[in-house]
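> tool_call: predict_assembly(chains=two)
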Amino acid sequence: MLIRPKAGILDPQGVAVQRALPALGFEGVENVHVGRLVELDVEDAAQLQPMCEKLLANPLVEDYEVELLGGDGGA
Amino acid sequence: MLFGVLQFPGSCDEVDALAAARRVGDAELIWHRDRDLGGADAIVVPGGFSYGDYLRAGAIARFSPAMESVIDFARDGGLVLGICNGFQVLCEAHLLPGALLPNANLRFTFRQVELLVVESDTAFTGACAGGERLSIPAKHSWGRYYAPEQTLAAMDAARQVVLRYAPGENFNGSLRDIAGVRNEAGNVFGLMPHPEHAVDELIGGSSDGLRIFESMRLAVEGARA
């Protein structure tokens, strides 16, 4: 599950990273946002969305995407 | 008047909350695994870093057995005060609108703040005068109050914003300078600053925080009378 701050809500982590990159010589960087990645093994993939809604993301301030990596977990 | 003060693994302000509550009534701790609230007349969800604040501040504490009982208690009209991490827990539990996000400056900040009492006709500020200033400390890194614009407008219309940071005091970037909000029914209140740390002028020079606890006592005893 990929969880990121909703567009339009101040993302100070993204702003801090965006300011740091030019200091290291990386120019032309814009719209940096920092989210988080949750990896897990689960038998029933139908549980993933309710997991995000209930606990893993806060839908008020975060968007999430679910990606299925197949039977062996893609590890 | 009995206050029940929740205690999660990672709470750190429950002892001060207990001491503050005991200045106006009786108070007992409630361990996070207890479903029994011990007959408390009001609940305090204290500050700290419940369950390590992993994932998001307050996200895991919200599902503790004690919080499940607090949610029922609140739905039945019981008074619930959430301070700092407790405010975050109450938002995660959907007992209060909105969310607390990382401070705009990304820094943990500990300082005395001046608050404006926007609503004094509430169960949590009844001992204050409208427009009065309270001086109490704040200490957090996740205190930037956020709610969608439509929610903010509805909250203003329903007089749910109880405390705002005074001009120049909004150090965390909260929308509309919001420092403390109540639910629509008016029995659940959360704030980021710490009234329980400002109950004796000997320490910190202000006892303004005591007024929040005193207001709750008046509300509970008024409802009984």
